[in-house]
């Protein structure tokens, strides 16, 4: 499995509480590579917590569909709600070889998506750090590239900016459009003028992010289990 | 180039010397002149007839009349000359912080006054300091605070400033008390309260010099914010502690203090602190609301800003709550909304005026410090002074390592040992410690001179020795640098990530402070911005950034007097037919140039805190680059033979900025003075 290759040399022990939960739900045991992949930064309590959350969202089913995400009230106000939900079902993020959208995801896929938001460890070496960074940037790239053609075109960029600014009802579409145009031109100045026509590829995307520290920004703090606010 | 520099240096030296000699002359001549005119008046009032009195004196000198403002102005001018000279020698700012020069000037003036046996004007007493000298400094600190990094690190900053100040004050005070108990040093008459008070006074840090060094070395944002936040809150907390201890000293004799008073002291600490912040927020909202209506009287906008902040300070002081924290909170609250409402000119005025006021205040305080240095009010006690210095360093290091050890457990990105070392080394003392020492009431503190001397020694040591060596230390330790690139792309990406993070946290069922920030922003957009900002137009920061870039570009273009084809602006003109056509290479080139210029013209939004000057505007260099690029692209397009957008007949269409309301379209209305922009309809790209 591709997952195992990412984190070699990690102990492959299953957390014991995992087995308990699984037996109750009747879900087949998650293969060891997944937990080993996650056990770097995600402890067994956190896996259990995420599992509980998964059960909540899926209403005790085995899989989640897009409609299940509607039950989260706070997500309502997020301007890029659509893109976030979409990202969960994007097969490229789920590390599946095919393309397009999955209809439903199971817990393993859920964890895979969550793993993109691990905070970086202090003891990572250069190569791991670089790979880590590429993963996160790839996730972002997929969020921009909604038609899955591997390039961010101007129209897609405009979409993103419009969505970002859609929280403000008083902003005209024109502004969003010109901002996106401006950003595209900026990108073109970094990567070359052809990008305006053909769209930004992932390599150009990487170049754009050369100097910026994405690792420090794109992470979710997994705090103690006790401090969760439930969505009900 | 070198010759010009030397000429400059010589000129500035000359000016300096002449200024100094003028002031010396003024001080020297004054007593005799004053007496002479006094004599005349006395004779006149006696009515004794003498032939001299009946004559009308053609030339009289009355120095007493203008003495105070005259000398104050001289001091300020002297300091300004020193600053000019300081910056002309390019190497000097890299070696030492600007505070060093100010202190040196102060000492110089003090030496002159001392030598000429002049009675210096009473510039500093309690009311003048707290009412006139301190507020501008605080206001400027609060106003120029970068809000977003501050609030992102708010927990750590609060933890560090509050507990750090408390720990330092009590630590130093108690240790000094222990030292005072040793009879050999002759300090046994300093009781516990006095030592505690001294501890709270001496732990007031003023790390502006350190901040300048950080900014120059572009250290990472978290480190910068910690020091910045500490300096901001530290003033308020120290003054609160100081007042509490003074109240204790006045209220009871030492033996009568009961535990109830100590609890009352703690409670008062919180009430004063939090009350001040609340006060400030209320005043901030009121003033932001006021600026909504100043559309037609834009010249009073700076007045509103300054007066309301000052009012918040004074009102808080009336109720004995912390005016400093009130003013800081007011400035922070006010800034966001005021910046949207006021005109460009008012905005610039506010910025510069604030810097000017705080510069004046600081200069005066430093000069007075210099005057005190070379004065007679000293008492030297080796033990007290050395131990004070020692304890300051020790306790700061201890508190840094202890507090950060704990707070690192809650941070995703803990501060490394290197960071902590830097933070502990940047504990420079400055004007606030000195002022508090100077203002001690002498009846309660018979050994006030000792305190003043000790404070001065600590200040001189930290500013000169630590200030000079902190630059090399930062470079040696190679602290993690920041990489701030201001561009639209970055803004978009960072925004996207914020929302993404909040979304993921919602999905995880988490409650972390990104949610709080989102909730606040929602509330802000829905209610606050509607009430406080003009024309009901809540603008997002993306749009503001873009707008500012456009305005800047337009101003640059106006100044360099060139015509350009503004390709992005026409897309804003609604109603124009959207003619989609393929971009010609020339147009691409020109658009690329336009936006490439925007890359380095964006207003500096990264932390750039310098009390002494605003972030330098390298507009001259940029204007030159624009001209060069413009010529280059013109030449290229001519060679290619394409029809240039700006080769077509010029029609004076106005440039529509994002901020203008979409009123009835008046295509012939001229907006900028000599700028004509050609627009040839909107350009849209065909996607592949």
UniProtKB/TrEMBL annotation, chain A:
Where is it found, in Gene Ontology cellular component terms? cytoplasm; lamellipodium; nucleus; ruffle membrane
GO MF annotation terms: calcium ion binding; protein kinase inhibitor activity
The way it spans or sits in the membrane comes to: Lipid-anchor
Main localisation: other
InterPro entries, sorted: CHP3, EF-hand-dom_pair, EF_Hand_1_Ca_BS, EF_hand_dom
Q: Which GO terms describe its biological process?
A: cell differentiation
Residue ranges of the EF-hand domain? 132-167
SUPFAM superfamilies, per the entry: EF-hand (SSF47473)
**Domain of life, per lineage:** Eukaryota
Q: Give the family per the record.
A: Belongs to the calcineurin regulatory subunit family. CHP subfamily.
**Protein name (database record):** Calcineurin B homologous protein 3
Q: Which organism is it from?
A: Catharus ustulatus (Russet-backed thrush)
The taxonomic lineage of its organism, from the top, reads: Eukaryota, Metazoa, Chordata, Craniata, Vertebrata
From TrEMBL, chain B:
| Pfam families according to UniProt | Na_H_Exchanger, NEXCaM_BD
Q: Where in the cell is the protein located?
A: Apical cell membrane
Gene Ontology molecular-function annotations: potassium:proton antiporter activity; sodium:proton antiporter activity
Q: Which organism is it from?
A: Catharus ustulatus
Q: Which UniProt keywords apply?
A: Antiport, Cell membrane, Ion transport, Membrane, Signal, Sodium, Sodium transport, Transmembrane, Transmembrane helix, Transport
Q: Domain Cation/H+ exchanger transmembrane: where?
A: 76-475
The answer to whether the entry has keyword Nucleus is: no
Identify the gene encoding this protein. Answer: SLC9A4
A GO BP entry:
regulation of intracellular pH
Spell out the NCBIfam families in the cross-references.
Answer: b_cpa1 (TIGR00840)
What's the name of the protein?
Answer: Sodium/hydrogen exchanger
One GO cellular component this record assigns the protein to is:
apical plasma membrane
Q: Does the keyword Ion transport apply?
A: yes
Q: Which residues form the Sodium/hydrogen exchanger regulatory region domain?
A: 567-673
State the family it belongs to. Answer: Belongs to the monovalent cation:proton antiporter 1 (CPA1) transporter (TC 2.A.36) family.
| Residue ranges crossing the lipid bilayer per the database entry | 72-89, 101-118, 157-180, 192-214, 226-248, 269-290, 310-332, 352-374, 380-406, 451-474
